[in-house]
Amino acid sequence: MRIVFDARYIRTSDTDVLPAGGIGRYSYQLLRRMRNLDEDLKFLLVVPAGNGRPIFPESDMKIREVSCQFPANSFSTLYRLAEKIDFCGQDLFHSPFNMMPGKLPCPSVVTLHDIMWLTQPHLCAGFWPERVLVGALYQKGIRTALCRADHIITISEASRREIVRYKPEIVDRISVIHHGMESFFREIEQERVEALLAPLWSQIGMSGEKTTREIILCVGQGSPYKNQARAIQGFLGAFGKRDDIQLVVVNRFRRFDWKMRRLLARERAGERIILLDSVTDEQLLALYNRARIFLFPSLVEGFGMPQLEAMACGTPVLTSNRGAPAEISGGCSLLVNPENVEAIAHGLVELDQNEELRCKLIAAGRKRVQDFRWLDAAEKTMAVYQAVMRISG
């Protein structure tokens, strides 16, 4: 079987693989496992122009690469990709990031992580010009995928329900395949945690007793669905009178947010809340281990990988009582209404002060992460490929 896989979320330098965000990690981890599942399986990877080394330099002719000049998320992907890639002899195309090109000459599979741009665009971007311009692209890409893909993979039952509710006729050609969990995220020694964080604290000008405060950690990006404004309000409601605890917000992709700016302008709020535009993977690992609580109050998610990463690092999680966050938590997180600031604040206090609950959730979280394996995801994805090929003849 010959697969064209759009791997443009996986960038490389001359020495390293640099997956971009959750979709990049998803693509890379799937490919790592799938390439070894079947001796007859061959991949043609569409990679971003400017990549350094190959994604899998040790591979022989099982994996080839072809570079693409235009961005993954672009109208050029929708209208020109099929013309730019030589599909001769290829059996199937897989897009792992919501965008399905038109005029493909072979069967296709698309991974729809969510359809928020169709159902709740106001949660995708708070800045209305971005919502209109970027929304037009994503809405076209997702609608094309829903109409033209031979099979749709999504990553949670919550996402599947939302997709089927939006387009009921695709119910027989959609599968749920959960993400796996990377072994990189794990519990590490306290000495290493402090050593990894020392350069980060120095970089942002934090020193002295501030570096020893307890941490409530948020990881995500600035889109409204991440609910960071309520996370900050909940934190201030829970710990506003305490100087020994601070909120650290890691924004993997910073977006302009007036509401956030107003919150941070409140008296002393800026001293208690640390916004980090980006951190290295090792610094993120250290932050998960250092955190007393991981706060993940998303309004909507396709999956919600950060809460599993926190569980793997032995940190108790406070998350939403709805959708994918509740599903993926599997009863191993404290659930609250993400639209209720008082509920978030109460949950934070409970998880900080109730040692029995903390121990219970930490132990349950360690077991929960073992349910998510990338090899399982790869095998199920391969089964989808095979089913599509059988149906397509």
UniProtKB/TrEMBL annotation:
Name of the protein this chain belongs to = Glycosyl transferase
Alphabetical UniProt keywords: Transferase
Report if keyword S-adenosyl-L-methionine is assigned.
no
What InterPro entries does this protein map onto? Glyco_trans_1, Glyco_trans_4-like_N
| Listed transmembrane segments | none
User: What is the protein's species of origin?
Assistant: Desulfomarina profundi
* Pfam families linked to this entry: Glyco_transf_4 (PF13439), Glycos_transf_1 (PF00534)
Gene Ontology MF terms in the entry: glycosyltransferase activity
Domain (Glycosyltransferase subfamily 4-like N-terminal) ranges: 21-181
- Glycosyl transferase family domain: which residues? 207-368
Q: PANTHER family from the entry?
A: GLYCOSYLTRANSFERASE WBBK-RELATED
